[in-house]
């Protein structure tokens, strides 16, 4: 008999910004599905209507598509196993809960909120683990029917075995054993008729044909209840894989108090989808061969659960920046430049995103240079300020500067006072005035070489004063590149701006 087609899912709740943890778990589901020519499904778990947000749901769709984690079935793309919103499947859950009651695998519980509160208080006072005490578990059929006829509110609870163990066969962790006596009778259907996560999750996974459940390790403690539900229904359980949680530097579960967790943040900050996915893959998986920079296609091709590490992966923004920088340098330059344009507009360097061919060509060269030292698209205009800001002040030594910074500023400003410095600037003005407005990098480079030959001094003596009046910085991009990018008129304007001061 041939194996079932692999079908996996993620099931986020639309209650806020799309979470980076959703992308992390989504990535591993997606990679596993595609490695096995299977299906990747997005299901929206929106039974908590008090926290539901339609905007949040749309943001989940948008974030997944931005990352390229394209699901085969979902609320907005359809599929044969739909609907894919739990709120649209509401009518089926009560039927399944009542089926379990009829089979003797679940029962009606009529305990009031007041009784349950007193039970919790008593258990706390006796230093017992909190949990339901089975008060309604053995009500007679007549007692149940009388209470139902009287309209008493109820929930439906799963009958957990009192004895023995439930064994979770985890594909990453091996056998995990739980004593049944320590697991209380989980609520399946709430008094308002809504299913709990546990019931809806198992019913939906079964009806959607989910073969492998790949989710965060925080769900391990719930898995015995899920396994018992599969047994109660008489269904085959899926294969379980519980991924290590993303963690803060102090090893606590990743939280917005210590790390940005919204996928919107990473998109707005200008991280590339390739960089973020590569980083998230490294959080739980090793490519092997000491290879840390790879594409999603390479991950899919080489995917194996054997390569997953169970150590708590630290969500390190420094490492993310390093990974993203590599992908910025690998990305097609035209594409990277197009992605960068909104950030240059935001910085005030362009009025809108409709650049002329000439403007695009110059920006493309600027991006090519500045991407080497930039970790995000948002950093590009910051690091490219030298090409846009014509009016600047020479740096001054300030209190608190280290010795290296002081020395750099002294070298820059003092170069303007030397005879060589003054001569270099004057001769440069004469030479550049003979050129057209558009100056190539080769032409600019030739002028700078000629100056050194004619003055008879090395690069430091000749070029430092020119750096001072053209860029205001002792270090940075090659001077001939700056001159070629900004052109003759702006170069002369910069020089006059400093000399006039």
From TrEMBL:
Catalytic activity field: tRNA(Glu) + L-glutamate + ATP = L-glutamyl-tRNA(Glu) + AMP + diphosphate
Span of domain Glutamyl/glutaminyl-tRNA synthetase class Ib catalytic: 5-322
GO BP term (any one): glutamyl-tRNA aminoacylation
Sequence motif 'KMSKS' region, location on chain: 253-257
PROSITE patterns linked to this entry: AA_TRNA_LIGASE_I
Chain's role: Catalyzes the attachment of glutamate to tRNA(Glu) in a two-step reaction: glutamate is first activated by ATP to form Glu-AMP and then transferred to the acceptor end of tRNA(Glu).
Quaternary state and interactors: Monomer.
UniProt name for this protein: Glutamate--tRNA ligase
Origin species: Leptotrichia buccalis (strain ATCC 14201 / DSM 1135 / JCM 12969 / NCTC 10249 / C-1013-b)
Phylogenetic lineage: Bacteria, Fusobacteriati, Fusobacteriota, Fusobacteriia, Fusobacteriales
């Amino acid at each position: 008999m041939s194996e079932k087609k692999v079908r996996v899912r993620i099931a986020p709740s639309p209650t806020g910004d799309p979470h980076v943890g959703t992308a992390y778990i989504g990535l591993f589901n997606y990679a596993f599905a595609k490695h096995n020519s299977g299906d990747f499904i997005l299901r929206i778990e929106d039974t908590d209507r008090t926290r539901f947000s339609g905007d949040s749901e749309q943001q989940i769709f948008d974030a997944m598509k931005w990352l390229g984690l394209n699901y085969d079935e979902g609320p907005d793309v359809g599929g044969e196993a739909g609907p894919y919103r739990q709120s649209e499947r509401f009518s089926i859950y009560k039927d399944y809960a009542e089926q379990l009651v009829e089979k003797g695998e679940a029962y009606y519980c009529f305990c009031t909120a007041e009784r349950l509160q007193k039970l919790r208080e008593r258990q706390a006072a006796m230093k017992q683990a909190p949990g339901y005490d089975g008060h309604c578990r053995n009500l007679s059929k007549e007692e149940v029917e009388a209470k139902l006829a009287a309209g008493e509110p109820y929930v439906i609870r799963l009958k957990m075995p009192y004895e023995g163990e439930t064994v979770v066969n985890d594909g990453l962790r091996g056998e995990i054993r739980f004593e049944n006596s320590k697991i209380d009778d989980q609520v399946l259907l709430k008094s308002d008729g809504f299913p709990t996560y546990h019931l809806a999750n198992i019913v939906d996974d079964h009806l959607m044909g989910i073969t492998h459940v790949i989710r965060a390790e925080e769900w391990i403690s719930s898995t015995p209840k899920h396994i018992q539900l599969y047994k109660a229904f008489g269904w085959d359980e899926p294969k379980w894989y519980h991924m290590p949680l993303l963690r803060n530097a102090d090893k606590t579960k990743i939280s917005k108090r210590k790390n940005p967790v919204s996928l919107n943040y990473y998109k707005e900050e200008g991280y590339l989808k390739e960089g973020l996915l590569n980083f998230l893959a490294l959080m739980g998986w090793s490519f092997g061969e000491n290879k840390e920079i790879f594409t999603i296609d390479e991950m899919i091709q080489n995917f194996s659960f054997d390569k997953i590490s169970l150590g708590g992966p630290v969500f390190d923004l420094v490492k993310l920046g390093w990974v993203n920088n590599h992908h910025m340098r690998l990305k097609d330059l035209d594409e990277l430049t197009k992605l960068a344009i909104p950030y240059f507009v935001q910085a005030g360097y362009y009025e809108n995103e409709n650049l002329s061919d000439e403007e695009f060509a110059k920006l493309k060269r600027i991006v090519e240079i500045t991407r080497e030292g930039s970790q995000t698209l948002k950093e590009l205009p910051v690091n490219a300020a030298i090409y846009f800001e014509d009016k600047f002040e020479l740096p001054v030594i300030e209190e608190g500067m280290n010795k290296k910074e002081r020395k750099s500023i002294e070298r820059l400003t003092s170069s303007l006072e030397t005879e060589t410095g003054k001569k270099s600037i004057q001769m440069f003005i004469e030479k550049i005035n003979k050129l057209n407005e558009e100056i190539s990098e080769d032409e600019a480079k030739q002028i700078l070489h000629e100056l050194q030959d004619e003055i008879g001094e090395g690069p430091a003596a000749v070029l430092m004063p020119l750096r001072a009046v053209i860029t205001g910085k002792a270090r940075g991009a090659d001077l001939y590149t700056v001159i070629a990018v900004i052109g003759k008129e702006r170069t002369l304007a910069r020089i006059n701006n400093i000399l006039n001061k």
